Amino acid sequence: MTDKAEGSLLYLDDVSVSFDGFRAINRLSLVLEPGEMRAIIGPNGAGKTTMMDIITGKTRPDTGDVLFDGSVDLTRLDEAAIANLGIGRKFQKPTVFESHSVEDNIALALKARRGAFAALFHRRSSVEQGRIDALLETIRLSEKRDLLAARLSHGQKQWLEIGMLLAQEPRLLLVDEPAAGMTDAETAETAILLKEIARTQSVVVVEHDMTFVRALDVKVTVLHEGSVLAEGSLDAVSSNPKVIEVYLGR
Amino acid sequence: MAFLRLLAILAALIAGLQPALAVRIADADLSSHVVALGVGGFDAAEKAIADLAATGDDRVPTILDRLGNGELMVRKADGAVFAVEKAGLDFRLTDLVTGVGAGLAPKAAVEKIKVNNRIRRAIASAVGALTLMSPDPSVRRAAAEAVMKSADVAAIPVLDQAIAAETVADIRSAMLAARATALLASDAPEADKVASIAAIADLGSRDALGFLSGYTSAEGAVGAAARKAAAVIESRLMLWDVGQNLWYGLSLGSVLLLAAIGLAITFGVMGVINMAHGEMVMIGAYATFTAQEAIRSSWPELFDYSLLIALPVAFLTAALAGILIERLVIRWLYGRPLETLLATWGVSLMLQQAVRSLYGANNREVGNPAWMSGAFAVGDIQVTWTRLWIILFALAVFFALIGVLKRTRLGLEMRAVTQNRQMAAAVGIRTPLVDALTFGLGSGIAGLAGVALSQIDNVSPNLGRGYIIDSFMVVVFGGVGNLWGTLVGALTLGVANKMLEPYAGAVLGKIILLVAIILFIQKRPRGLFALKGRAVEA
Amino acid sequence: MITTFLIDSLDRRGRIVVGLLVALALLVPAGNLLVPEGNVFHVSTYQLTLCGKYLTYALLALSVDLVWGYCGILSLGHGAFFALGGYAMGMYLMRQIGTRGVYADPLLPDFMVFLNWKELPWFWQGFDMAWYALLMVVLVPGLLALVFGWLSFRSRVTGVYLSIITQALTYALLLAFFRNDMGFGGNNGLTDFKDILGYPIQAPGTRAALFAASALMLAIGFVIASAVVRSKLGKVLVAIRDAESRTRFIGYRVEHYKLFVWTLSAAMAGIAGALYVPQVGIINPSEFDPAASIEAVIWVAVGGRGTLVGPLIGAVAVNFGKTWFTGVLPEVWLYALGALFVVVTLFLPRGIVGLWDKLVTGRAKPAVEANGAGRQTGEAA
Question: Rounded to whole angstroms, how far apart are CA atoms B262 and B253?
Answer without folding.
Answer: 15
